[in-house]
Structures are given as C-alpha cells and as structure tokens.
User: Fold this.
Amino acid sequence: MSKPSLPQGTRDFGPEVVRKRNYIISTIKTVFELYGFEPLETPAMENLDTLMGKYGEEGDKLIFKILNNGLNDSRNIEKATLAFENVLKGKNDKNLTERALKYDLTIPFARYVAMNYGQLTFPFKRYQVQPVWRADRPQKGRYREFYQCDADVVGSNSLLNEVELANIYTTVFKKLGIAVEIKLNNRKILAALAEICGGADKLTDITVAIDKLDKIGMEKVEAELAERGLDAEQIRTIRVYLEINGNNETKLAAVKSLFADSAIGAKGIEELELILQYQQSLDTDHWLSIDLTLARGLNYYTGTIFEVKAKNVQMGSIGGGGRYDDLTGLFGVPGIPGVGISFGVDRIYDVLEELKLFPKEVQKGARVLFFNLGQLESNKAFELMQRLRGNGIACELYHEQAKFDKQFKYAERKGIAFAVMIGSRELETGTCNVKNLATGAQQSVPFDQLEAIVMQDLRFKIRHDKQA
Assistant:
C-alpha cells in the first residue's frame, strides 16, 4: 500500500490552523454584515459553459474540468475517446466534460443573479465565503484549492459602492492589524491607452501583458506586446504610461495630459478622483495608492479596479476586485451593473503568521479540564462541567481514570487554562480543587461557587493575555 498523500496544491488544516482561519473569516464577515451585506453560497461545481470565456485566455487555462459520469461504461467509451482527442486539440467536448470546479465566486454570483433576477431586491449586496479551485502551479501563497471572501453590490451605478468597498478593506485590515497598500486603477484609463495604441480591440492584449509587469519586468512585457501585434511606437506609448510615478495627484495629472483627448480616459480619472475625495474626508486616503500598472487581467472589469498588498512581507496580493457593468449580460440578463472585492484568506493567514499578529486568545479550545479520579467523582465532575458549559465555558472531563501526571500532561499539550480535581474527600466536603495551570496557584472552592470563580479567573486571564 502506498503512503497516503494529498493532491498537490491542497492542504489539511489541524485545530490550531482552523481556529486561526476562523478568526480571519469571522473578522471579515463581521465587517461585511456591518455594511449591510447578506450571505450567499453557490455549488462547488458549475456548468462548464458558465465559466469558460469569462476569465480571459490565461484564466480559462486554469479551470479544473470534471470528467462526465459513466465514462467507463462501454456505451460511452467511443464517444469519450473522440471527445478526448478534441480536448487535446484545445477544444471543449460535452461528451467528455460539461462541468468544472468554480474558478472564483464572481461568475457563479452573476449566474445566481441572472437566474433569480425577479426575486431579488436591488441593489443586492451579498458576501460569500467558500473554496475555489485553480489549476495553477503551487508555490508560496498560491494554492490549487483556497478560500475566497467576496463582497459584491449589483444593481447600482453609484460610485459610493466603490467608496464603501475601499472602506471595508481599510476596516478589515485595521482589525487584523495588517499594514496594507490598497492599489487603485480604472479600466477606462486602460481603455484610453488602448485607443491611442490602435483601437479598443487592443485592450485585452495590452491588459494581459501589463498585468504581468511585476512578475516578468518591462522588457518581457514589451516583447509580449510585440508578439501580440503592437508596433514600436505603440509599445513606446505604453512604456511612457507605465513609467508614470509620484503621488496620487501627480499620477492623475500625468494621465490627464496623456489622455487629454479621450472621453473614456477622462471618465476613468474622474471616478478615481471621487473615491480619493471621500477617503480624504475620512482620513483614510493614505491607505490608497493609484497604480497605473494595475490591470487585473480578467476581461469582465469595466471601471475601478482594486488590489491589496501587505507591507513588510514578501507576498502577492491579499485582495482584489473591481467594477463590472454588464456581467449578468453574459447570462442573458443585460444592464445590471456591479462591483465587488475579494479577500485572499490563505494569503492573509500567511501574512498574520509571518508577522506574528494572531492574538493569543484565538486558540480557545477547552478552558477547563475536570480530572477523572473515579466513578463517583466523575459523576459529580460531569454535573459541574455541564453547569460551566451552560455559562459558555468550554471544558472537558478526562476520558478515563488515570494518574495525575498523565492528566496534567494532557491539559498542558492542549493549552487548557485550569484543572478541576474532585476526589473522595472533596465529595464529602462539597468542594473542589481548582488549579491555574499557568501560575500553579491552587484553591479549594465550594461546588456552588465554581462557576463564579472560574469565570472571574478566565476574565482576568483574557485581559492579561491581551495586554501581553
């Protein structure tokens, strides 16, 4: 029998990791709810037609396709064989695969809105926390199965939605204690760049290439643009654009000059200026940075685009999103504008771990261990344990009668705060011994005062841990 293993790019999560992940997700969900967003879930798989063609040529290559059921049935072997040959030629064939694991949460959300359009109240604000799958090459911070936390608003053209989403980013990362840079650009500005470089049909070629700038560098971006049919003068214009630097005001002034004759460019600049104006009034504008190299290579973005980078750590983006003004039109329901952002839970976890920012109180398993010192003693311990649980205090009764040393070691390994010991003498006197396992302090407590004493000690311990 071969040694058990995991598929590459996936992970198991033990109790300690799950608690830390739950801390991140709970923090994000709390902020989503604070801003009036409602929860939604969609299936792990979607019809292949729902996903293909929505993420650009690079994204489509990373979609995990699912083989149809019953391909080992003799009646389907011939069809499957012919279909496989089509797939090898780069074509999709429903005789082999017609479903896929979802690549992100946005397209399934658009499909949901299109299917439930008549029942929804617009603007519809939803958040979603679920795993997604990408057939990418695994590396640090990049996995084939990972969680996304999305918040989207559909049915509104108002730029107040972009302002609120930027505020959600700042609020969440303040709560998590992560210093971040929230990068902004606008696809209308990129459309203006395409206009002066040969026409709107060049937009995808340009955005796909410059989206790789931070990974492959300027020279390779220029080489890719040349391969995509742009001439030397057009590539020079793109280089001038990409080399614009300075603060937000300087960058916007430079693109105003570059796109002085472009109506769509002027609109994109106006939208960025409005977002920055609101942030200045809230004194959060220092979180936001105009990044004209930001392209977000997904085809469905049409306006403001976001990307979040953590400071003081080597890590890719930990959040991103943008405006998509006709995403549901892909599913036969045109004219529904939308905008959304996403949090990368796995990368946020890695950042918090590397910077040692997880609070100590995140690791809250059982807080009290009742020792097992015999049948009668355990019966009383179980009764008292249920009282503590009724007051919201997590506790355990050791599973069998054992030596003190063994039970103490169990409590230590699990990080339990207090041990409660009830022996035959304690049964007679109606008391129990409560030991603080961090300090070693021990006291005898009447049964009817146990809840109050433990709750008081726990409140003190939590305050002390936070101060530490």
Notes: DSSP finds 17 helices and 16 strands in the chain.
